[in-house]
Amino acid sequence: MQSVISVQQLSKTYASGFQALRHIDLEIRKGEIFALLGPNGAGKTTLISIICGIVNPSEGKVLADGHDVVREYRAARSKIGLVPQELTTDAFETVWNTVSFSRGLFGKPANPAYIEKVLKDLSLWNKKDSRLRTLSGGMKRRVMIAKALSHEPQILFLDEPTAGVDVELRRDMWEMVRSLRETGVTIILTTHYIEEAEEMADRIGVISKGELILVEDKAELMNKLGRKQLTLHLQRPLQGVPPSLSDYALELSPDGNELVYTFDTQGDRTGIDVLLRKLGEAGIDFKDLQTSQSSLEDIFVSLVSERP
After folding, report:
1. What is the Cα–Cα distance from 226 to 221, expressed in whole angstroms?
2. What's the whole-model pTM score?
3. What are the angstrom distances between the C-alpha of 181 and each of 29, 65, 177?
4. Do 237 and 159 fall within a single domain?
5. Whether residue 93 sits in one domain with residue 44
6. How far apart are CA 241 and CA 250, in angstroms?
7. pLDDT average, residue stretch 122-139
8. What is the CATH number of the domain that holds 92?
């Protein structure tokens, strides 16, 4: 499949000596939704800023729809819409004027019908004459998206788009992203939320400490993340796991008061029902149980620790 963004051996070292990115190679396919995951400080925003021409790379090359983002900045940037993390808007301007002005910045002729469609798609039409300072945080976020779409870009970056927004807006944005993808727009999403990537992405990349440590199809990565732990708090401590339960690879806590069973949520059967029956047959009673799933941060730590 054709790449719409090509990142080749990209590195960024700031004047302070901090190396934010290290030799990134990444191909993003035309028309896909690509989710870039990583903890704070991993390099997500720096990578996006370089692709969008906001920050210059120290080494390497980036092409956006075939245009070098440094040497052909205007051509490359015209293909890209960016929704940054920060809500930076003119507080005293109206929604309509803000979005229309943003379109003009890219040299696009006025198109009121298109601006109307964007505002309606983002549930902003009834706010078109409102000044931005009167809007809620969620509505301001919608305006940022409308500005990014104002010049009809073929590539859309959403940098932590649902950070701090309500569930309703998050769902609306998911629907909007899907509809944009259906029109051929390529969408790159950065997020802390695994469920957001699981909901929308075709492929997922994980970045940590400035390095892109994996890029995989969503289904493959979700299989890796689809592991949970069942912790059983026992009535009486055990000295060891009975041989009759050896098939379950149970882990006994050092004090003997907890049994931990790790299972795959993606599997057809978790085996929990059989395990609980066998515990009863072995005379092992428990007073409480709980399930937990590794946090995204835990998963990153695990991925990084596996690297040489």
Report:
1. 9
2. 0.74
3. 12, 16, 6
4. no
5. yes
6. 7
7. 90
8. 3.40.50.300
The residue whose two tokens read 């727009």 is 185
Q: How confident is residue 33, by pLDDT bands cut at 50, 70 and 90?
A: very high
Compute CA distances 307 → 88, 208, 213, 214, 304, whole Å.
38, 11, 8, 11, 5
Strand arrangement, sheet containing 251-252: 251-252, 258-264, 227-234, 286-293
Note down the domain range covering 84.
3-223
- Residue 51, SS3 per DSSP: helix
Q: Which residue from 83, 32, 82, 38 is spatially nearest to 201, judged by alpha carbons? A: 32
pLDDT tens profile 249-292: 788 999 999 998 887 665 555 678 888 888 888 889 988 888 87
Radius of gyration, CA atoms only, the chain: 24
Quick one: pLDDT at residue 131?
93
Are 261 and 246 contacting, i.e. CB atoms less than 8 angstroms apart?
Answer: no
**Res. 111: pLDDT tops 80:** yes
**Tokens (6 digits) for 76:** 């490359």
238 and 210 share a domain? Answer: no
Q: How deeply is 198 buried, as exposed, middle or buried, from its count of CB atoms within 10 A (0-12, 13-18, 19+)?
A: middle
Point out the domain boundary residue: 193, 223, 253: 223
CA distance 287 to 235: 6
Cα 160–Cα 165–Cα 169 angle in degrees, nearest 5: 100
Backbone CA torsion sign across 67, 69, 71, 72: positive
Strand partners, 292: 229
Same domain, 155 and 290: no
